[in-house]
Amino acid sequence: MKIEPALVLFFHCPEEELTRRLLNRNQGRIDDNIDTIPKRLKVYFESTLPVIHHYSSNGKIDAGRSIDEVFEEVKRVFLQLECGIMGNSVKE
């Protein structure tokens, strides 16, 4: 696409936790089962790892924690980005 993003967030979550969350999301998808999830995750990781490695110097968000903890970290990242762009100091 020949554009360089200002920010790339990568939510790192162990495969076991991803599988647990997919099995528990109850959205009625027939591919949310113990047989297809590993195949889906394999395709995901194979297609995204080059992108992840390219931007890995920017850090990763540990998404294996609670939703509230992940949300708070994402808010901090966006606040830091906003302050960097606007030249303001970080205020919480």
From TrEMBL:
The yes or no answer to whether the keyword Glycosyltransferase is present is no
> What Pfam families does the record tag this protein with?
ADK (PF00406)
tRNA processing is among the record's keywords = no
Keywords of the record: Kinase, Nucleotide-binding, Transferase
Question: InterPro entries from the entry?
Answer: Adenylat/UMP-CMP_kin (IPR000850), P-loop_NTPase (IPR027417)
Which top-level group of life is the source organism from? Eukaryota
A GO MF label:
AMP kinase activity
UniProt EC number: 2.7.4.3
Signal peptide position in this chain?
none
Q: What class of enzyme is it?
A: transferase
Stored PANTHER family: NUCLEOTIDE KINASE
State the family it belongs to.
Belongs to the adenylate kinase family.
- Name assigned to this protein: adenylate kinase
Species this protein is from: Turnera subulata
| Taxon lineage | Eukaryota, Viridiplantae, Streptophyta, Embryophyta, Tracheophyta
UniProt gene name: URA6_3
